[in-house]
Amino acid sequence: MPSQVLIEQSLGAQAFVALLRAHATVTRELSARLDAEHGLTISDFEVLLRLVAAPERRMRRVDLAQEVLLTASGITRLLDGLERAGFVERDSCPTDRRVVYAVLTDDGLAKVREAAATHFAQRDELLGTRLDDGELIELASLLGRLGGRDDAAPCDATA
Amino acid sequence: MPSQVLIEQSLGAQAFVALLRAHATVTRELSARLDAEHGLTISDFEVLLRLVAAPERRMRRVDLAQEVLLTASGITRLLDGLERAGFVERDSCPTDRRVVYAVLTDDGLAKVREAAATHFAQRDELLGTRLDDGELIELASLLGRLGGRDDAAPCDATA
DNA sequence: GCTTTACTATTGACTACGCAAACAATCGTA
DNA sequence: TACGATTGTTTGCGTAGTCAATAGTAAAGC
Asked: In terms of C-beta density within 10 A (0-12 exposed, 13-18 middle, 19 or more buried), how is residue B140 classed?
Protein backbone atom coordinates (compact mmCIF):
# COMPACT_ATOMS: atom_id res chain seq x y z
CA MET A 1 0.00 0.00 0.00
CA PRO A 2 2.01 2.95 -1.20
CA SER A 3 -0.43 5.69 -0.38
CA GLN A 4 0.72 6.77 3.04
CA VAL A 5 2.50 9.65 1.46
CA LEU A 6 -0.81 11.39 1.23
CA ILE A 7 -2.15 10.62 4.64
CA GLU A 8 -0.56 13.60 6.19
CA GLN A 9 -0.96 15.25 9.50
CA SER A 10 1.24 18.27 9.06
CA LEU A 11 0.49 21.38 11.02
CA GLY A 12 -0.32 23.18 7.82
CA ALA A 13 -2.83 20.52 6.88
CA GLN A 14 -4.60 20.71 10.19
CA ALA A 15 -4.78 24.47 10.19
CA PHE A 16 -5.90 24.60 6.59
CA VAL A 17 -8.77 22.15 6.85
CA ALA A 18 -9.79 23.72 10.13
CA LEU A 19 -9.95 27.05 8.31
CA LEU A 20 -12.08 25.57 5.55
CA ARG A 21 -14.45 23.93 8.01
CA ALA A 22 -14.74 26.87 10.35
CA HIS A 23 -15.41 29.26 7.51
CA ALA A 24 -18.03 27.01 5.97
CA THR A 25 -19.74 26.36 9.27
CA VAL A 26 -19.83 29.91 10.49
CA THR A 27 -20.79 31.62 7.24
CA ARG A 28 -23.35 28.96 6.35
CA GLU A 29 -25.22 29.57 9.54
CA LEU A 30 -24.98 33.32 9.58
CA SER A 31 -25.65 33.87 5.92
CA ALA A 32 -28.69 31.63 5.96
CA ARG A 33 -30.22 33.69 8.73
CA LEU A 34 -29.18 37.03 7.29
CA ASP A 35 -30.78 36.08 4.01
CA ALA A 36 -33.93 34.66 5.55
CA GLU A 37 -34.49 37.57 7.90
CA HIS A 38 -33.31 40.47 5.80
CA GLY A 39 -32.74 39.29 2.26
CA LEU A 40 -29.06 40.17 2.32
CA THR A 41 -25.94 38.17 1.66
CA ILE A 42 -22.98 38.56 3.95
CA SER A 43 -21.19 40.50 1.26
CA ASP A 44 -24.17 42.78 0.82
CA PHE A 45 -24.15 43.46 4.51
CA GLU A 46 -20.42 44.01 4.69
CA VAL A 47 -20.64 46.51 1.86
CA LEU A 48 -23.46 48.40 3.53
CA LEU A 49 -21.45 48.43 6.76
CA ARG A 50 -18.48 50.07 5.07
CA LEU A 51 -20.72 52.67 3.51
CA VAL A 52 -22.24 53.57 6.88
CA ALA A 53 -18.79 54.21 8.25
CA ALA A 54 -17.52 56.06 5.19
CA PRO A 55 -17.35 59.85 5.00
CA GLU A 56 -20.61 61.12 3.53
CA ARG A 57 -21.64 57.48 3.32
CA ARG A 58 -20.06 57.18 -0.10
CA MET A 59 -17.20 55.16 -1.53
CA ARG A 60 -15.59 54.47 -4.87
CA ARG A 61 -16.36 51.05 -6.24
CA VAL A 62 -12.71 50.14 -6.43
CA ASP A 63 -12.12 50.84 -2.77
CA LEU A 64 -15.25 49.00 -1.78
CA ALA A 65 -14.14 45.99 -3.77
CA GLN A 66 -10.78 45.97 -2.07
CA GLU A 67 -12.28 46.18 1.39
CA VAL A 68 -14.65 43.30 0.99
CA LEU A 69 -12.28 41.27 -1.16
CA LEU A 70 -14.30 41.15 -4.32
CA THR A 71 -13.19 41.75 -7.89
CA ALA A 72 -14.24 44.85 -9.76
CA SER A 73 -16.92 42.95 -11.59
CA GLY A 74 -18.08 41.31 -8.42
CA ILE A 75 -18.68 44.68 -6.84
CA THR A 76 -20.50 45.93 -9.90
CA ARG A 77 -23.00 43.12 -9.74
CA LEU A 78 -23.38 43.28 -6.01
CA LEU A 79 -24.08 47.00 -6.14
CA ASP A 80 -26.51 46.41 -9.00
CA GLY A 81 -28.54 44.37 -6.58
CA LEU A 82 -28.35 46.89 -3.77
CA GLU A 83 -29.25 49.64 -6.20
CA ARG A 84 -32.25 47.73 -7.46
CA ALA A 85 -33.33 47.31 -3.87
CA GLY A 86 -32.91 51.03 -3.29
CA PHE A 87 -30.21 50.74 -0.67
CA VAL A 88 -27.49 52.52 -2.60
CA GLU A 89 -27.37 55.07 -5.37
CA ARG A 90 -24.67 55.81 -7.86
CA ASP A 91 -23.02 59.19 -8.12
CA SER A 92 -20.28 60.48 -10.33
CA CYS A 93 -17.03 62.09 -9.31
CA PRO A 94 -16.51 65.64 -10.54
CA THR A 95 -12.73 65.39 -10.61
CA ASP A 96 -12.39 61.95 -12.19
CA ARG A 97 -14.99 60.89 -14.64
CA ARG A 98 -13.97 57.26 -14.50
CA VAL A 99 -15.10 56.70 -10.97
CA VAL A 100 -18.63 55.96 -9.85
CA TYR A 101 -19.46 56.40 -6.22
CA ALA A 102 -21.75 54.09 -4.32
CA VAL A 103 -23.82 56.19 -1.93
CA LEU A 104 -25.88 54.77 0.89
CA THR A 105 -29.50 55.91 0.78
CA ASP A 106 -31.70 56.51 3.79
CA ASP A 107 -33.44 53.24 3.06
CA GLY A 108 -30.04 51.62 2.96
CA LEU A 109 -29.13 53.07 6.32
CA ALA A 110 -32.35 51.83 7.80
CA LYS A 111 -31.72 48.42 6.34
CA VAL A 112 -28.23 48.06 7.78
CA ARG A 113 -29.45 49.09 11.18
CA GLU A 114 -32.25 46.60 11.05
CA ALA A 115 -29.99 43.81 9.85
CA ALA A 116 -27.17 44.68 12.20
CA ALA A 117 -29.41 44.31 15.21
CA THR A 118 -29.95 40.62 14.61
CA HIS A 119 -26.84 39.72 12.68
CA PHE A 120 -24.38 41.00 15.25
CA ALA A 121 -26.21 39.22 18.00
CA GLN A 122 -26.22 35.97 16.07
CA ARG A 123 -22.59 36.31 15.20
CA ASP A 124 -21.51 37.07 18.73
CA GLU A 125 -23.60 34.27 20.07
CA LEU A 126 -22.20 31.80 17.57
CA LEU A 127 -18.63 32.76 18.33
CA GLY A 128 -19.11 33.48 21.99
CA THR A 129 -20.55 30.13 22.91
CA ARG A 130 -17.54 28.37 21.45
CA LEU A 131 -14.71 30.69 22.40
CA ASP A 132 -14.12 33.00 25.33
CA ASP A 133 -12.89 36.58 25.02
CA GLY A 134 -9.22 35.81 25.24
CA GLU A 135 -9.53 33.13 22.63
CA LEU A 136 -11.42 35.42 20.28
CA ILE A 137 -8.63 37.98 20.53
CA GLU A 138 -6.04 35.32 19.91
CA LEU A 139 -7.97 33.93 16.96
CA ALA A 140 -8.49 37.32 15.38
CA SER A 141 -4.81 38.04 15.71
CA LEU A 142 -3.69 34.78 14.14
CA LEU A 143 -6.21 35.04 11.32
CA GLY A 144 -5.25 38.64 10.79
CA ARG A 145 -1.75 37.58 9.97
CA LEU A 146 -3.05 35.13 7.40
CA GLY A 147 -5.40 37.63 5.85
CA GLY A 148 -2.78 40.10 4.85
CA ARG A 149 -2.14 43.48 6.21
CA ASP A 150 -4.43 46.31 5.21
CA ASP A 151 -4.40 47.53 8.79
CA ALA A 152 -1.23 45.97 10.03
CA ALA A 153 -0.35 48.57 12.61
CA PRO A 154 -3.08 48.61 15.24
CA CYS A 155 -0.72 50.07 17.81
CA ASP A 156 -3.15 51.99 19.96
CA ALA A 157 -6.20 49.94 19.16
CA THR A 158 -5.36 47.41 21.79
CA ALA A 159 -8.84 46.33 22.86
CA MET B 1 -24.70 61.73 13.30
CA PRO B 2 -26.43 58.71 14.78
CA SER B 3 -24.52 56.00 13.03
CA GLN B 4 -21.95 55.07 15.63
CA VAL B 5 -24.09 52.17 16.62
CA LEU B 6 -22.75 50.35 13.62
CA ILE B 7 -19.13 51.23 13.93
CA GLU B 8 -18.40 48.37 16.16
CA GLN B 9 -15.24 46.87 17.41
CA SER B 10 -16.56 43.90 19.30
CA LEU B 11 -14.39 40.86 19.66
CA GLY B 12 -16.86 38.89 17.59
CA ALA B 13 -16.63 41.43 14.80
CA GLN B 14 -12.88 41.32 14.69
CA ALA B 15 -12.71 37.56 14.72
CA PHE B 16 -15.43 37.24 12.13
CA VAL B 17 -13.99 39.61 9.56
CA ALA B 18 -10.56 38.16 10.16
CA LEU B 19 -12.02 34.77 9.36
CA LEU B 20 -13.57 36.06 6.17
CA ARG B 21 -10.37 37.73 5.06
CA ALA B 22 -8.08 34.90 5.96
CA HIS B 23 -10.25 32.37 4.21
CA ALA B 24 -10.53 34.46 1.09
CA THR B 25 -6.83 35.24 0.99
CA VAL B 26 -5.61 31.73 1.60
CA THR B 27 -8.03 29.87 -0.62
CA ARG B 28 -7.77 32.39 -3.42
CA GLU B 29 -4.06 31.91 -3.65
CA LEU B 30 -4.02 28.15 -3.25
CA SER B 31 -6.98 27.44 -5.45
CA ALA B 32 -5.67 29.59 -8.26
CA ARG B 33 -2.43 27.63 -8.31
CA LEU B 34 -4.08 24.26 -7.88
CA ASP B 35 -6.34 25.01 -10.80
CA ALA B 36 -3.61 26.43 -12.99
CA GLU B 37 -1.14 23.64 -12.34
CA HIS B 38 -3.45 20.66 -12.09
CA GLY B 39 -6.91 21.67 -13.23
CA LEU B 40 -8.48 20.89 -9.87
CA THR B 41 -10.52 22.92 -7.44
CA ILE B 42 -9.77 22.71 -3.76
CA SER B 43 -12.93 20.68 -3.25
CA ASP B 44 -11.90 18.32 -6.03
CA PHE B 45 -8.59 17.83 -4.35
CA GLU B 46 -10.06 17.36 -0.90
CA VAL B 47 -12.40 14.72 -2.25
CA LEU B 48 -9.57 12.86 -3.96
CA LEU B 49 -7.59 13.03 -0.73
CA ARG B 50 -10.36 11.38 1.25
CA LEU B 51 -10.65 8.67 -1.33
CA VAL B 52 -6.95 7.90 -1.17
CA ALA B 53 -7.22 7.40 2.56
CA ALA B 54 -10.46 5.42 2.41
CA PRO B 55 -10.55 1.63 2.62
CA GLU B 56 -10.39 0.22 -0.90
CA ARG B 57 -10.26 3.81 -2.07
CA ARG B 58 -14.03 4.00 -2.16
CA MET B 59 -16.64 6.00 -0.32
CA ARG B 60 -20.34 6.56 -0.40
CA ARG B 61 -21.34 9.90 -1.83
CA VAL B 62 -23.16 10.87 1.32
CA ASP B 63 -20.13 10.36 3.50
CA LEU B 64 -17.93 12.18 1.07
CA ALA B 65 -20.31 15.12 1.04
CA GLN B 66 -20.29 15.32 4.79
CA GLU B 67 -16.53 15.23 5.01
CA VAL B 68 -15.94 18.05 2.58
CA LEU B 69 -19.00 20.02 3.67
CA LEU B 70 -20.93 19.91 0.46
CA THR B 71 -24.59 19.16 -0.08
CA ALA B 72 -25.68 15.96 -1.74
CA SER B 73 -26.18 17.74 -5.02
CA GLY B 74 -22.86 19.46 -4.73
CA ILE B 75 -21.10 16.15 -4.42
CA THR B 76 -23.00 14.70 -7.34
CA ARG B 77 -21.85 17.47 -9.63
CA LEU B 78 -18.33 17.48 -8.33
CA LEU B 79 -18.01 13.75 -8.86
CA ASP B 80 -19.50 14.14 -12.34
CA GLY B 81 -16.51 16.25 -13.17
CA LEU B 82 -13.98 13.90 -11.65
CA GLU B 83 -15.66 11.01 -13.41
CA ARG B 84 -15.52 12.76 -16.74
CA ALA B 85 -11.84 13.36 -16.13
CA GLY B 86 -11.38 9.68 -15.37
CA PHE B 87 -10.24 10.15 -11.77
CA VAL B 88 -13.12 8.35 -10.12
CA GLU B 89 -15.58 5.67 -11.14
CA ARG B 90 -18.97 4.87 -9.79
CA ASP B 91 -19.80 1.53 -8.29
CA SER B 92 -22.93 0.20 -6.74
CA CYS B 93 -23.39 -1.33 -3.35
CA PRO B 94 -24.62 -4.90 -3.30
CA THR B 95 -26.36 -4.58 0.05
CA ASP B 96 -28.06 -1.23 -0.47
CA ARG B 97 -29.09 -0.36 -3.94
CA ARG B 98 -29.58 3.29 -3.15
CA VAL B 99 -25.95 4.00 -2.59
CA VAL B 100 -23.42 4.77 -5.25
CA TYR B 101 -19.78 4.49 -4.38
CA ALA B 102 -17.15 6.81 -5.69
CA VAL B 103 -14.03 4.80 -6.38
CA LEU B 104 -10.64 6.32 -7.05
CA THR B 105 -9.09 5.10 -10.29
CA ASP B 106 -5.39 4.61 -10.89
CA ASP B 107 -5.40 7.79 -12.90
CA GLY B 108 -7.06 9.48 -9.99
CA LEU B 109 -4.41 8.21 -7.62
CA ALA B 110 -1.67 9.47 -9.90
CA LYS B 111 -3.40 12.81 -10.11
CA VAL B 112 -3.68 13.30 -6.36
CA ARG B 113 -0.06 12.43 -5.89
CA GLU B 114 0.99 14.85 -8.56
CA ALA B 115 -1.21 17.61 -7.19
CA ALA B 116 -0.33 16.92 -3.58
CA ALA B 117 3.34 17.39 -4.26
CA THR B 118 2.92 21.04 -5.16
CA HIS B 119 -0.22 21.91 -3.27
CA PHE B 120 1.03 20.79 0.12
CA ALA B 121 4.24 22.67 -0.37
CA GLN B 122 2.41 25.82 -1.37
CA ARG B 123 0.02 25.52 1.51
CA ASP B 124 2.71 24.95 4.09
CA GLU B 125 4.76 27.75 2.69
CA LEU B 126 1.82 30.14 2.73
CA LEU B 127 0.95 29.30 6.29
CA GLY B 128 4.46 28.71 7.53
CA THR B 129 5.82 32.06 6.51
CA ARG B 130 3.13 33.83 8.49
CA LEU B 131 2.78 31.63 11.55
CA ASP B 132 5.20 29.46 13.46
CA ASP B 133 4.49 25.90 14.59
CA GLY B 134 3.02 26.78 17.92
CA GLU B 135 0.74 29.33 16.36
CA LEU B 136 -0.45 26.88 13.74
CA ILE B 137 -1.39 24.43 16.44
CA GLU B 138 -3.18 27.12 18.38
CA LEU B 139 -4.99 28.33 15.28
CA ALA B 140 -6.08 24.85 14.26
CA SER B 141 -7.40 24.24 17.74
CA LEU B 142 -9.40 27.47 17.89
CA LEU B 143 -10.79 27.01 14.39
CA GLY B 144 -11.59 23.41 15.19
CA ARG B 145 -13.93 24.56 17.89
CA LEU B 146 -15.70 26.86 15.48
CA GLY B 147 -15.96 24.22 12.80
CA GLY B 148 -18.19 21.95 14.78
CA ARG B 149 -17.64 18.48 15.88
CA ASP B 150 -17.53 15.69 13.40
CA ASP B 151 -15.05 14.10 15.76
CA ALA B 152 -16.44 15.57 18.93
CA ALA B 153 -16.10 12.54 21.11
CA PRO B 154 -12.41 11.87 20.95
CA CYS B 155 -12.49 10.15 24.30
CA ASP B 156 -9.27 8.30 23.88
CA ALA B 157 -8.02 10.50 21.09
CA THR B 158 -7.19 13.32 23.46
CA ALA B 159 -4.40 14.94 21.50
C1' DG C 1 0.84 68.55 -28.34
C1' DC C 2 0.42 63.66 -28.94
C1' DT C 3 1.12 58.82 -27.58
C1' DT C 4 1.59 55.31 -24.52
C1' DT C 5 0.57 53.45 -20.15
C1' DA C 6 -2.36 52.84 -16.11
C1' DC C 7 -6.82 52.96 -13.84
C1' DT C 8 -12.12 52.52 -13.22
C1' DA C 9 -16.15 50.36 -14.43
C1' DT C 10 -19.10 47.34 -17.06
C1' DT C 11 -20.45 43.26 -19.75
C1' DG C 12 -20.53 38.35 -21.55
C1' DA C 13 -19.59 33.78 -20.71
C1' DC C 14 -18.82 30.48 -17.41
C1' DT C 15 -18.46 27.85 -12.84
C1' DA C 16 -19.40 26.08 -8.36
C1' DC C 17 -22.20 25.70 -5.63
C1' DG C 18 -27.23 25.75 -2.94
C1' DC C 19 -32.25 24.62 -2.48
C1' DA C 20 -36.31 22.17 -3.49
C1' DA C 21 -38.45 18.60 -5.81
C1' DA C 22 -38.48 13.96 -7.45
C1' DC C 23 -37.61 9.17 -7.11
C1' DA C 24 -35.98 4.76 -5.61
C1' DA C 25 -34.72 1.86 -1.94
C1' DT C 26 -34.64 0.65 2.85
C1' DC C 27 -36.22 0.39 7.61
C1' DG C 28 -39.52 0.34 11.46
C1' DT C 29 -43.69 -0.86 13.05
C1' DA C 30 -48.03 -2.81 13.54
C1' DT D 1 -46.79 -8.20 5.01
C1' DA D 2 -48.30 -3.69 4.13
C1' DC D 3 -47.19 1.23 4.77
C1' DG D 4 -45.40 5.46 6.41
C1' DA D 5 -40.95 7.51 7.41
C1' DT D 6 -36.23 7.94 6.37
C1' DT D 7 -32.16 7.78 3.48
C1' DG D 8 -29.23 8.16 -0.91
C1' DT D 9 -28.97 10.21 -5.23
C1' DT D 10 -30.05 13.02 -9.11
C1' DT D 11 -32.03 17.00 -11.59
C1' DG D 12 -33.99 21.82 -12.63
C1' DC D 13 -33.45 26.23 -11.53
C1' DG D 14 -31.36 30.11 -9.35
C1' DT D 15 -27.36 32.91 -7.59
C1' DA D 16 -22.88 34.85 -6.29
C1' DG D 17 -18.93 35.14 -7.89
C1' DT D 18 -14.70 34.75 -11.36
C1' DC D 19 -11.97 35.90 -15.65
C1' DA D 20 -11.29 38.03 -20.05
C1' DA D 21 -12.47 41.53 -23.08
C1' DT D 22 -14.06 46.25 -23.82
C1' DA D 23 -14.32 51.13 -23.38
C1' DG D 24 -13.72 55.53 -21.39
C1' DT D 25 -10.80 58.49 -18.71
C1' DA D 26 -6.47 60.12 -16.62
C1' DA D 27 -1.57 60.56 -16.08
C1' DA D 28 3.33 60.34 -17.89
C1' DG D 29 6.87 60.47 -21.31
C1' DC D 30 8.73 62.74 -25.23
From this structure: buried
